[in-house]
Specification:
This protein is of the alpha+beta class. 42% of the residues lie in helices and 23% in strands.
């Protein structure tokens, strides 16, 4: 049996992208909303090897107040999908690859939740700006590493057994952290 080389990819975009794009240029992660190929609006790069790329990222905002010698942090952390930076090759993409791409977005949400948890449990000092930034950079690095591991272990969706394991793993992690809201 001849197998076509089909790769998928992902792209993590930092919060700066959110501010440079209009409201219609990103989708907020929601448990009831699944991606569809019609949302992948980016142009396929010339000579690209992957079958699809999901551009997703985490953004945050916060305000800090000093109250009785303690820094109180109000924050919002969200996972986004960027349609104009996400693309696919219709001639090689199917529902399996779309589910693989969806899981990239779900992994992004999982790490947004990890950041929310971290921000809640951290006691901040007067250096709150650099402390929040440090947490954000670490979470983005962890997210990037896990996204790479996901692609590697699933062979970009071509290993059905590994894909199912990742699907279950991320679903369970999202269920465990379902109560983590901003």
């Amino acid at each position: 049996m001849v197998r076509t080389l089909i790769l998928s990819g992902f792209l993590i975009l930092a919060s700066a992208v959110v501010f440079s794009q209009g409201m219609e240029d990103y989708l907020l992660w929601h448990p009831e909303q699944r991606l569809s190929w019609s949302q992948f609006k980016g142009k396929v790069p010339v000579a690209s090897v992957p079958a699809a790329t999901t551009a997703s990222g985490i953004s945050y905002s916060y305000s800090a107040n000093l109250l009785h010698h303690e820094v109180q942090l109000d924050f919002e952390v969200n996972a986004y999908f960027y349609p104009n930076a996400s693309w696919y090759k219709p001639e090689v993409c199917d529902s399996l690859i779309l589910s693989h791409e969806q899981l990239h977005f779900d992994i992004t949400e999982l790490y947004a939740r990890k950041m929310r948890i971290e921000l809640r449990k951290t006691t901040f000092t007067e250096n709150v700006k650099s402390e929040v930034k440090k947490i954000y950079k670490r979470i983005l690095k962890e997210l990037s590493d896990v996204q790479d591991q996901y692609d590697w272990e699933t062979n970009f969706s071509r290993n059905p057994k590994a894909q199912m394991q990742w699907n279950q793993r991320i679903k369970a992690a999202l269920e465990r952290t379902a109560n983590v809201v901003n």
